[in-house]
Amino acid sequence: MDRRTLLTTLAATAAAGAAPWARAQNYPEQIIKWVVPYPAGGGTDVIARTLAEAMRQPLGQQIVVDNRPGASTNIGAELVARAKPDGYTIMSADNAVLAFNEYLFSKLPFNPEKDFSYIGAIGKFPLALVVHPDFPAKDFKAFLAYVKANPGKVNYASPGNGSPHHLAMEMFKNRTGTFITHIPYRGAAPAMADVMGGQVPCMFLDLASGLPIMQGHKVRVLAIGSGARSKLLPDVPTLAEVGVPNTKVFAFQGILGPAGLPAPVVSKLNAELNRAFTVPAVQKRFNDFGMEAMPGTPQQFAALSRAESKRWGPIIKSAGIKLD
């Protein structure tokens, strides 16, 4: 190869390498697709649309929510894991994608630790232990005594196998040595309806779905699974306060992209996500859902996800829960 050809080849190679970086610096230049691995209208969908609207104007591009429900979030997660890493396909990811499914399924079409770029945490909302108002136990101490005296005779509802609500009760059972029988439903609404109606006496319920019926006294709230009391339910003690330590149970969400997102893209999306938490409409929505915003770095979000995976893995394994 002569000198001129060599220089031309080196210049072309350098330009090719610089092109993705230059495009990343100008990001975004087209519509961004935000995948939600749940049906439209649910809590995850509403939060995504609220944030997308708050982030749209500063980014200078439309953000279109694309609902891809199914297979306990695996359909949406696989789509994003296989997407081009250019920042134009991102997703809402929660406990299922980040902490549960690697134990609930024998084989996943993605690796939650290796196949995604972590952009930032959105927030978390605690799960609360609730009972029907006519349940014989009127407080947590009485509830625990009742279920211990009646092993296997008390049922609990959940929105479905492998849901945070299901696994929260399994952790509770593990920590308290109790035996309560699982009745899975297809979604939070029918589960809540049967607890309110007295067909099933209890469940762990997230504040995003259940806050109105909690505040309306249609169920009795015995304890909340956060590290501190909720300002929306200030009279409800935490599980630690009632004598069940090391039992924090909460659902959390964040934003992922495909592995290999350029650093400028991750940085820009993270900055706009954190800025969105200061927007009044976003703050109102979070407050309505009892959701705690979690501003921070991509590294903090990744660390949270891995910590939650390690915390829930033993619970899922000991309970023998599988979704395939």
TrEMBL record:
This is Tripartite-type tricarboxylate transporter receptor subunit TctC. Keywords: Receptor, Signal. The keyword Disulfide bond does not apply. It comes from Variovorax soli. InterPro entries: BUG (IPR005064), Bug_dom1 (IPR042100), TAT_signal (IPR006311). Residues 1-24 form the signal peptide. PANTHER family: BLR1237 PROTEIN, TRICARBOXYLATE-BINDING PROTEIN. It comes from the Bacteria. Belongs to the UPF0065 (bug) family. SUPFAM superfamilies: Periplasmic binding protein-like II. PROSITE patterns: TAT. Pfam families: TctC.
